[in-house]
Amino acid sequence: MSLHSTQPAAAGIYLHIPFCRQACVYCNFHFSTSLRYKDDVLQAMALEIELQRNYLGDTPVQTVYFGGGTPSLLTADEILRLFDVIQRTFRIDELKEVTLEANPDDLNIGYIRSLRSTPVNRFSIGIQSFRQPDLEYMKRAHNAQQAEAAIKGAQDVGFEKLSIDLIYGVPGMTDHHWKENLDKVRRLQIPHFSAYALTVEERTALHHAIAHNKAVPVDAAQAAGQFGILMDVARTMGYEHYEISNLALPGQYAIHNTNYWRGLPYLGIGPSAHSFDGLHRRAWNVSNNIAYTKAILEDNKPSREEEVLSPFDHLNEYIMTSLRTQWGCDLDHIARNWDETTAAVVEKSSHLFQEKHWMVQDGRVLQLTDQGKYFADRIAGDMFVSNED
């Protein structure tokens, strides 16, 4: 089995801003609540952009994504300085989307207006819930009033491309409460939102609190039921469930994340940031602010690790990501990029799930049904192809 690749049409750049004002109990991303080394990290990130000038080749950058952490801790000037290095280093003549992840408590009107002077044209706002008890359980820094005010403020200043994050399955969040959150999305006319089940990751404050009976455990059955509500309510509101955790009004998909799922290349800048060359190699930076900064500013070389994907690895990643989307797993794509025999193996492995009504086949495209979406990772894992197939 071989993988045939062509020059990618577009690429993305992800910048990891590894700072937060406070830690959310469920978060296991890399960040620091101390801003002591912020200037050094931003200086190192600017230099890393230059050091990685050849990573994307001549592929035009279509999206830039400031993630974290809490990128809304950056001033407009700091965002402009990083973006200036990007536009001096890479092709951005086809740039379509520049996203800033933001916390509601950062999005006061003055700050939002200052961002109009930057290339940022899309916000991804970490609302999580419009209910105060949910926010308190998750130890969020903002309150319910700030959640709604941040959205309205962004809209008033002229930011039309908005996405918010919501979390379901929170202890104490009834189905009625969850429906109220979803109805708030409709009433605020938010074009895109992401919805995630609250998960308890190891080495998080939430995991520790539950283990020591200091927090109410998460109920998997509650989360599953609210995922079903999400699918039903979103459909009636006119949102397309275009990826397991992402929903949008027609044409309002997140370009950056969609390109991840399409397997396009991206360059990750900053501590813990991941990169993919679109072909065979993944790389990730050290998850330590001081080590990251020292490697770049003193050694002039990022501290990072790499892995080379085999054709099987690449195929299985395609199966997993494509099945999570409304566009599904395209057997013709597999035949073109691997071979027809491999496509036949994948098609055969889908028959069991079609019999269970977890999957349907439309021509040469395999897609999960609503019932199948509950088991997306399990289905993909069972369909993975190995040397023995």
Provide structural commentary:
It is built from 16 helices and 15 strands. The protein has helices spanning about 40-50, 75-90, 110-115, 130-135, 145-155, 175-185, 205-210, 220-235, 255-260, 290-300, 310-325, 330-335, 340-350, 350-355, 370-375, 375-385, and strands spanning about 10-15, 60-70, 95-100, 120-130, 160-170, 190-195, 240-245, 245-250, 265-270, 275, 280-285, 305-310, 330, 360, 365-370. β14 and β15 (about 365-370) form a beta hairpin. It starts with 10 loop residues before the first strand and ends in a 6-residue tail after the last helix.
- Please indicate the count of domains: 2
What percentage of residues falls in helices of 4 or more residues?
Answer: 40-55%
Task: Please count the helical segments.
Answer: 16
- Global shape: globular
Tally the beta strands: 15
Q: What attributes characterize this protein structure?
A:
single chain; TIM Barrel; Arc Repressor Mutant, subunit A; three-stranded antiparallel beta sheet; alpha/beta; globular; nine-stranded mixed beta sheet; 2 domains; 16 helices; 389 residues; 40% helix; 15 strands
List the helices and strands and how they pair.
Elements: E1 11-17, H1 38-51, E2 61-68, H2 76-89, E3 97-102, H3 109-114, E4 122-128, H4 132-137, H5 144-157, E5 161-168, H6 175-187, E6 192-197, H7 205-211, H8 220-236, E7 240-243, E8 246-248, H9 255-261, E9 266-269, E10 274-276, E11 281-285, H10 289-299, E12 304-308, H11 311-323, E13 329-330, H12 331-337, H13 340-349, H14 351-355, E14 359-362, E15 365-368, H15 370-373, H16 376-383
Parallel strand pairs: 1-2, 1-9, 2-3, 3-4, 4-5, 5-6
Antiparallel strand pairs: 6-8, 7-8, 10-11, 11-12, 13-15, 14-15
Helix pairs in contact: 1-2, 1-10, 6-8, 11-16, 12-13
